[in-house]
Design a protein that fits this description.
There is one protein chain. The protein has five helices and six strands; from the N terminus they run βαβαβαβααββ. It has 174 residues and is of the alpha/beta class. Helix 1 packs across helix 2 and helix 3 crosses helix 4. 39% of the residues are buried.
């Protein structure tokens, strides 16, 4: 099977709940106790649904780094993690540019980032296609530690808005 025809999964994860402020600035904000529990719940959910991640594209912020660590500690098999400053406070177009650079050998890629970029990217990629229940839930909000699981067939470098199908939307709470 060529990589162009391979079925891919893109998991979009908004970081878990954070402290309101940090003396080091927004980039250094850390997870709260609830955020830590929710991130662990996200890892358990991914494990329970057999969604193994091959590559992670993660913002450089402290809260996204902590979210990733807790996802792995909770049972989701650890993947290659690439921290990318471009994901921090990124538009959906900028996030898509980062996804275009994902390893073509990775069948399952997870992006760990922030609102409003992550929710907007999920909406633009699926464009109403896939799970009606998932789209309804996303329309009600994309809170911290929410995950959108999208399917796509093709190369990561070719992914465009409207090319994916929303399989599931889940808000992890611990």
């Amino acid at each position: 099977m060529t990589s162009a025809a391979r079925d891919r999964v893109l998991v979009l994860l908004r970081h878990a709940k954070t402290e309101e402020s940090n003396p080091g600035g927004d980039h250094e904000r850390e997870l709260t106790g609830r955020g830590r529990r929710d991130a662990s719940a996200a890892g358990r959910w991914l494990h329970e649904h057999a969604i193994g991640i091959d590559e992670v594209l993660c913002s450089t912020s402290e809260r996204t780094r902590q979210t990733c660590e807790l996802v792995w500690e909770a049972g989701c098999p650890e993947a290659d993690v690439h921290h990318d400053r471009r994901i921090y406070d990124a538009s959906p177009e900028a996030l898509l540019d980062v996804v275009h650079e994902a390893d073509d050998d990775a069948d399952v890629v997870m992006v760990v980032g922030h609102a409003p970029g992550i929710p907007a990217l999920a909406e633009l990629l699926a464009d109403g296609e896939g799970s009606a229940e998932g789209h309804r839930a996303m329309a009600e909000g994309f809170p911290t530690c929410a995950l959108a699981v999208l399917h796509y067939a093709g190369r990561w470098s070719d992914l465009a808005f409207g090319d994916a199908v929303l399989e599931r939307f889940h808000v992890a709470r611990g």
